[in-house]
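The records we work with from here on pair a chain with its fold. A complete example follows; check for yourself that the lines match position by position.
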Amino acid sequence: MTAVQEERTTEELKALAERAGRDLEDASALEILRWAAETFGRRFCVTSSMEDAVVAHLASRAMPGVDVVFLDTGYHFPETIGTRDAVEGVMDVNLITLTPRQSVAEQDAEYGPKLHDRDPDLCCKLRKVRPLEEGLKGYTAWATGLRRDESPTRANTPVVGWDEKRRKVKISPIAAWSQEDVQAYVDEHGVLTNPLLMDGYASVGCAPCTRRVLEGEDARAGRWAGRAKTECGLHG
């Protein structure tokens, strides 16, 4: 597989993303990721929260040795770190761990303890958004595990779109999947999943801001429960 490495302007990339979003809407997740690998080569990466390794697994089939970027916020559940380590050990991927500029202790010293309780938007900005912006600088395109059925805020997620904030092509190959589709893929391929998914958590983020979901709640209801906040800032 030979990737096209020509330099494209921002406007060309934006047009490419919008066209691919239309053309690939009905394509399989693997086809979408093969397109990304062929189009962007090593300037393409996958981001993973290690809730599960479905997109990382798909991407490794499309592009063996693909870069998989993980944000270690310093607040993860031990199970999440364990999932990351297992993915690195068994999958044909290049695992890259990003960390914030400050440790949790350093952040506490500057902003006071438990910033996540007092100003969760700032905490997410410091520990997620800024590290990802730095970590993605060498890439033209990145893939996520966003799905339309996760919450109303994600209902219109394109399979390929334009990330205006970062000026990059953003690929969501399983956007049209249901939770049943995810589980079927996990079962068929023996894909690693975070053990917390078997313990009442439908969406896994930082430990202080994540709880189990109640029956009938959407998958994102356990994130920042009791607050108006629904996204960390990575996706809007």
Notes: The radius of gyration is 17 Å.
